[in-house]
Every structure is written in C-alpha cells, then in structure tokens.
Amino acid sequence: MCGIVGYVGDEYAVPIVLEGVEKQEYRGYDSWGIGANTEGGIIIVKHKKPDDQEFDWFVERVMRVDFCSSRNAIGHNRWATNGEPSDINAHPQTDCTRKIALVHNGTIENYRELKDFLLARGHIIKSETDSELIAHLIEDMQKQNGGNIRSAIIKAVNQLQGAFSLLIMHADHPTLQVAVKKGSPLVYAEVKPSCFMVASSPLPIIKYARNGKDIEDGQIVFIENGKAEELSFADEKIKINPIIFEGTEEELKHEGFPHFMLKEIYEQPCKLGETIAGRVFTHEPFIRLGGVEPVLPQLLACDQFFFIGSGTSYRAAMLGAWMFKNYLNVRAQAVQASEVGSHNILAGCQPDKTVAFVISQSGETRDLQLAIEEIQAKGVMCLGIVNVVGSKIARMTKAGTYLRVGPEIGVASTKAFTAMVLSEAMLTLLLGRHKNMTRDECITFANQILAVPGCLELIFQQADEIQTLAKSMVDQSALMLLGRGYHYATILEGALKMTEVAYIAAVPELAGEMKHGPIALIKPKFPVIVVAAKDGLRGAVIQNIMEIQARGAFVIGICTNGDEEMQKLVDKSIIIPDLPSHLATIPAAVVFQLLAYYLGVERGYNVDKPRNLAKAVTVG
Ligand code: F6R
Fold first, then answer.
1. Residue 349, burial from CB neighbour count under 10 angstroms (0-12, 13-18, 19+)
2. Residue 368 CA: which ligand 1 atom is closest?
3. Pairing of strands 354-360, 331-336
4. What is the average pLDDT across 368-377?
5. How far apart, in whole angstroms, are the C-alpha atoms of residue 276 and residue 451?
6. How far apart are the CA of 209 and the centre of ligand 1, in A?
7. What residues does the Glutamine amidotransferase type-2 domain cover (predicted)?
8. Which value, in Å, is the radius of gyration of the alpha carbons in the chain?
9. Is 615 one of the annotated active-site residues of the chain?
10. The two domains 255-455 and 457-606 share their CATH topology (first three levels equal)
11. Class of the 3-245 domain?
C-alpha cells in the first residue's frame, strides 16, 4: 500500500504535506515524493529511500528546492507493487507534458491494455508504474475533449480497473486538486475556510481539523478556487458523508520510547483496558457488545463459525475458533484470508446458520476484502473485529466490534493482536451467556477477562531480563519455538514477530510434532523457546522439554507464575501470570513481542519499518 496526502489553501503547502508524508510512513517507506504547483510549473522532488537513511534525509532534499511559496502540493509514501523502488518509480508521476502530476495508492488491473493503448498513441512512458499511465490517460482524454480537465479526469477514471485513490494536480490550474477514490481509502477536510487537505488516513489532518469527509468508492472531489465540489464517477453532484476524525496528536508520536513498537507494547495494559471498558461485568448481563447486539438473534441461531484474517490477525483468528469450540461446543474454523478462495470453505454450510468473523487491524487488507466479498456472495453474514473505525472492512461487515486500541503505527502488530484475542474472549462470553454457560461460569469468565490488562505488568517487570536474553541470542540465525494447544497460535505469532523485526528464521512447531521431524535441528546449545504454561497440557510439554534437553538444546521456558518445578526444569525462564490458557496467550505473546523487539534492536534494525513491509497490505 501507499500513502497520499495533499494541501491546497493559503498556507505554504510543502511543509504541511511533508509532515503528512512523515505521518503516513507506516503506509509505505520505500520511496517518498512531493509535487508542488508553482507559477513556473509543477516542481517535483522524489526519491527512493537509501538503505542507510531515514525521513530526515528526504526532508533535507526537499529543503534544497525553492518551491516559490507554493500553496498547492501533493505528497506520497510508496510501497512498491508495479516496478522496483527507484527515483523514477516514486510518485508524483506525470504525463508527457509534465502538466499533470498525480499520486496514487492502489493497483490498476488493466495496466497492460492501458499501456498498449497509450504507447500506440505516442505517449512516452518513463517509469515501470501503473500510476504513470493514469497521468497519460488524463492527458489523452484532455486532448480528445478540447482541453477540459474535469471531464478528462472523469473519463479517465472510468476506464481504470482495480483499486485506486488518486490526488491529481494540473499546472494550468494553480488551485486545483482532484481526489478520486475507488477501493483504497481517502478522506478530506476543509481545514480552515477555503483551505483543504486530502489524505489516505486522517493522521495528517487531525492536527488541523476534526470534522472531515470519508470519500466512498466511485466518488470524486474537485477542489478549485477554495471550493470543493463532490461528484460521482458519472459526473453527478453528490453529498459525501461527514465523519469526525478520531485519535490524538500524542498517539502519532513515540515520545518517551525509542520506537512506536515499544510504545505500543507498553500501551497494552491501558489499551486493553479500553477494549473491555463498559463491556464486561462480573454481574448480569456480564457482557455488552453494542456493535454485535443488533445481530445477536441471528448470531445465536448459528452453529458454524469461521474466523478469518491475515498474518497476525490470522493467528488471532485461530484463537477465536478454538475458544468457540472449547467453550461453546460449536463448529469453528480459522482460515487465512488469502486461502478463502482456494478451498470451498463454506461447503455444506447453511448460510443462515453460519457466520464469519473477519479480523483486521487496518480494516484495509485486500485479501480479507476479497474473502468477505466471496463469503457474502454465498449469503453468509460477516461480522468485523476491526481496529480502524470506519475503515473499508468495518463498513463491509453488517456489524461487529472495534478493538479500541488507537492507531497502531509500528509495522509489526502488537496491541492489536492482544486486543483481538480479548475481543474473541468477549464474543465467547456473549454467546456462552445465551447458550451454555452457567451464571457461575459467566462470572469466572468475566473475571478472567477483567484480570488481563493489569496482569501484564508482570511481563514488563522482566523487560531487562528479556533484553539480556535477546543480547545473548543476537548472533543466532535460527531458533525454534514450541507450544501446544492454544499456545500453538502464540508461538506462530512469536515466530512472525521475530522473523519480521529481527530477520531471524524462527521455526514454530507443535511440541508434539517435533519428534516427527523438526527435532533434527536440535544440537548442543540450540535455543528453543517453549511455552510451558501450567495447563492441561503441562505434562506432555515436560516430556517434550526433556526430549530436546537430552539432545543439548538450550531451553527458554515461558512458565506460569508459581510453577517452580517447570522453572527449575528449563534453562532459563520468563514468567507469565496464572491465567486460563486461552487468555495466557496474551501475556505469552507480549513476552515474544518484547523479545523480538530487543532482538531487532540489538541486531541493529529499524524495528518500526521492517524490510519490504508496510502496515496494511492492500494488494491481493
Ligand atoms: C504482522 C502484521 C501483519 C498483519 C497482516 C494483517 O506483525 O502486522 O501480519 O497482521 O498484514 O493486517 P490487518 O490486521 O491490518 O488486516
């Protein structure tokens, strides 16, 4: 995915847009670009991010250029899809005349046909991007219709297939910015009278305005001469829905912490408190989930449940499915969003007795959007477990629950994961209360959920030890993670964190499966992290630990507070609070988050911006 941002008004536009580009770095950071409309034409500065440089380097490049006090600028963060990261592929992209400049987030599916068409008409295409073709297409349409930019843009966007949000400027129209949306997110606001900002997310705008508009698919905003005109792709006047932008400036900074990832790890007690605030009670009704209650009768009639997500959200999905099976005694299955189309997952399902929970931090993940479309086409209800309020996935679902953890900026998901697990526990309680749980069981279950935020403190008390452990493993290129039951999802999540922020090949394996092959990796001193919690599987895990210790492995145990026997058995222990295993996954995941963080930092990596990644994956 990429980020786009623009400002047009009476202030100097470049500093505002530059700040917006920095705030949207989580959306992509392999290249940055700025374009400003000036009396002398459109001036563009765009660069691939050098391996050893950060955003300040780009700021310095921008500062070298005289933008002639431009009041109209657009900016871009790139996460490469079509064409490698390079200066030429960075945005803004321009047409042959360099009069049209645009920034683009999304992918154009009819890229090849458009390229052939434009080449045949003599356009000179300089980059490998699909985005550049849009600028040429507008140029072409403009030539065909006697120079009218407005109808040229409308004609051009109607020829594009795929997902795109665009911000377009034209050298002959000094105050013009055109925002176009289909599939990729886009919001805009009048930040003060006659001054406008447009962006992929509210983050660049909230400093200036709280009231904005959420541009929907098939909508265009023409901003010119201090006025915004809202149109459909069919060139009809429309009214775009107003929204209030949430979040605070504070949430966009990592003050007091060296990285967003660490800040977001430490925020978990407070943010998880918000996830459950006003929702879980130790007395009747035990649970209140306002976003789900309108569909509760339908939900209670269901006997088959799917939990669908990608990456970290898929790991959370596994836990949701297991909670439903174990506590509600219903059929429940987790599926990776990208696999929904590969298997006939709904085979034999009765649509009115089936529900799919779709899980996403960003609410933008393309694989999940495609999965939702496929599931809904078969008449099955999708309910969201989503963080970003009003995001595409939240709007595609009939109802659902928000995570309430605020913006997650670090690319590796941390607080969203634990809030997803807690939300699934709340859903389990909601259904259990109406289906099969006794009053006492509800009280116990509610008390356990309520205990989670506070008990994470125990992990933070061991942060120095975890850091020391990370230091001792800094030269490892591989390690193994073992778990059973619910903790299989915990170690999958732990391995993902270590892989993405520390670039360590972390092999997650079901402890019981280890002897069927992975044990071949074990040799003296090979580090193996075992989730060795005090639960029904403890005895089997002890057996597995002894098998690998017999072969010389160095065993780091994530052990339950008070389980001294286990702590003595392993070579090094990290203690997690005594919670039932479906919830013990939360503190155990926090241990892995901290370990991955310190490993990444000790190995010298920028953990907030891991190689090749972006915060939301909007390509399918
Ligand atoms: C890993 C990570 C990704 C996301 C995945 C889904 O730390 O962040 O694996 O979990 O791309 O993203 P969302 O939850 O936004 O749908």
1. buried
2. 16
3. unpaired
4. 96
5. 11
6. 29
7. 2-226
8. 26
9. yes
10. yes
11. alpha beta
